């Protein structure tokens, strides 16, 4: 019995030694807190953002942002920029989820919203009207009435829809009072060359194609007149400021997953556009370096006439609804068949 009692006492003594050597609860908590502190000091992993932009005016406002990203200015976002020349490629990438944010024409944005069942949102408008009517010689066009009986060549898609709407609003019935030819020179570049060569009397072109055509015509001893600013004409018959031709959109899934990254992008993008409008020569060089346009001199001359802007929230929504309604009345397919619902507009309440 004494031996058993001695063994029990020895076991208790040994257990007491183990317990006294074990870390206390507080020590365990301290260790956890120290580890958490070390993790907190580590920089968060930057959010990868894949951005597509179109070459030409729609992409001009992205140039400074692209330059800053290359310099490593941003620490919370890791940008990959791709310049595209075909809006249909951008649309497919948005639908397939291959791109997170993209700059594209406003009607294309409405189109992809409808085709994807609302899986994209418009973040901001980046370009108002960029269309002008050019006339061969020193012809002046004081009103649309002066175009009665004339043939006007217009690139296909958006320019045709806009010009058609303006003709109707000014009492000219296309096909009867005026001929709008959007098939002979469906591409803006082809029409630009035809205008510069003196092959057509009247043509609608966007900037910077207007600047290029005027310069080329001068070299070829062809006289061209920038006869009408279609943005000014739009403001006469529609809500002023509602001719909005370019925008930037985001995939809904990306926005929901990374709302802060999208907010940071918009701040940087707005600053980039502000830089463009106040530092024209420097911005023109950045545009070339980014691959958005090929000639810095032409870009610098065109920027003041490109109406690059940053428009968001309720103001963006109001302008977009007016513009898209006009397009729907001309050709509903141009916006995907119907007007987008309210959830198309980011932060527009």
Could you please describe the fold and organization of this structure?
The structure is a single chain. This protein is of the alpha/beta class. The protein folds into 2 domains: about 45-130 and about 245-345, 3-Layer(aba) Sandwich (D-Maltodextrin-Binding Protein, domain 2); about 130-235, Periplasmic binding protein-like II (D-Maltodextrin-Binding Protein, domain 2), CATH 3.40.190.10. About 50% of the residues lie in helices and about 20% in strands. The protein has 15 helices and 11 strands. Strands 2-1-3-10-4-11 form a 6-stranded mixed β-sheet, sandwiched between helices. The protein has a 3-stranded antiparallel β-sheet with strand order 8-5-9. Helix 13 packs across helix 14 (about 295-300). It is globular, with a radius of gyration of 30 Å.
Q: How many strand units? A: 11
Kindly, what is the distance between the CA atoms of the first and last residues, rounded to a whole number of angstroms?
Answer: 86 Å
- State the helix count: 15
Task: State the share of residues found in helices, binned by percent.
Answer: 40-55%
CATH topology-level name of the largest domain: D-Maltodextrin-Binding Protein, domain 2
Outline, from the CA principal axes? globular
- What is the multimeric organization of the chains shown? single chain
Topology order in helix (H) and strand (E) letters: HHEHHEHEHEEEHEHEHEHEHHHHEH
